[in-house]
Design a protein that fits this description.
The complex is a heterodimer of chains A (about 110) and B (about 120). Chain A is an all-beta fold and about 110 residues long. Chain A has one domain: Sandwich (Immunoglobulin-like). Chain A has strands at about 5, 10-15, 20-25, 30-35, 45-50, 55, 65-70, 75-80, 85-95, 105, 110-114. In chain A, strands 2, 4, 5, 6, 9, 10 and 11 form a seven-stranded mixed beta sheet that branches. A four-stranded antiparallel beta sheet of chain A has the order 1-3-8-7, with no helix packed on it. The radius of gyration of chain A is 13 Å and the shape is globular. In chain B, the strands form three sheets. In chain B, strands 2, 5, 6, 10, 11 and 12 form a six-stranded mixed beta sheet that branches. A four-stranded antiparallel beta sheet of chain B has the order 3-9-8-7, with no helix packed on it. The radius of gyration of chain B is 14 Å and the shape is globular. The chains are: A mainly beta (about 110), B mainly beta (about 120). The interface of A and B includes residues 97 and 103 of A.
């Protein structure tokens, strides 16, 4: 059973397109995250939701819009894709945000913008 | 501002030898510290964490880490490396006072274990 799953695993698209990445966790966690890993493997938090409420919104272009329809899902929609958006996007979840829980990561979505 | 430094881009070790992957941190208060491992084309997997108490933390796959407050370090160690330990290792920190749960990651250290 996959704890944190993401779809699609690979996404190749052209500049200017709009695309979405979906994330689901079956762990019963309250908090979900989106991270971006660049070509140098550097990982940075983008967004975090706790009980469907946005609690972290780092300095990310407003072309990126997260949406959490329920506690088990956190989707990421990207408008007007740019070359610099090419990266691996990881979804993660944890039981909550206030205590030092470990985070469980999905397998990643490799986005390539051409 | 919180930050994590992993001073080595790569660590090379022979199988059977001890390994150390270094991590230093900077936070305004007391830290929560984590180690994660990433195998090629996979997501990150949790190895261990330090919250409070004993400075030596034991984790998955025989790894351990030592918290040193005076040196603001949290080095990852293993007494005897395996070829299968070859992967990318990330140290991460979270401020105890923070309520948002996000982790600040180091840039990662590639561990290569040769037979």
């Amino acid at each position: 059973d996959t704890a944190v799953s993401q779809t699609p695993k690979y996404l190749v698209t052209q500049m200017g397109n709009d695309k979405s990445i979906k994330c689901e966790q079956n762990l019963g966690h309250d908090t979900m995250y989106w991270y971006k890993q660049d070509s140098k493997k550097f990982l940075k938090i983008m967004f975090s939701y706790n009980n469907k409420e946005l609690i972290i919104n780092e300095t990310v272009p407003n072309r990126f819009s997260p949406k959490s329809p329920d506690k088990a899902h956190l989707n990421l929609h990207i408008n007007s894709l740019e070359l610099g958006d090419s990266a691996v996007y990881f979804c993660a979840s944890s039981p909550g945000a206030g205590l030092p829980y470990e985070q469980y990561f999905g397998p990643g979505t490799r986005l390539t913008v051409t | 501002a919180q930050s994590v430094a992993q001073p080595e881009d790569q660590v090379n070790v022979a199988e059977g030898n001890p390994l150390t992957v270094k991590c230093t941190y900077s936070v305004s208060g007391n830290p929560y510290l984590f180690w994660y491992v990433q195998y090629p084309n996979r997501g990150l997997q949790f190895l261990l964490k330090y919250i409070t108490g004993d400075n030596l933390v034991k984790g998955s796959y025989g790894f351990e880490a030592e918290f040193n407050k005076s040196q603001t370090s949290f080095h990852l160690k293993k007494p005897s490396a395996l070829v299968s330990d070859s992967a990318l290792y990330f140290c991460a920190v979270r401020d105890v006072g923070g309520s948002q749960g996000n982790l600040i990651f180091g840039k990662g250290t590639k561990l290569s274990v040769k037979p």
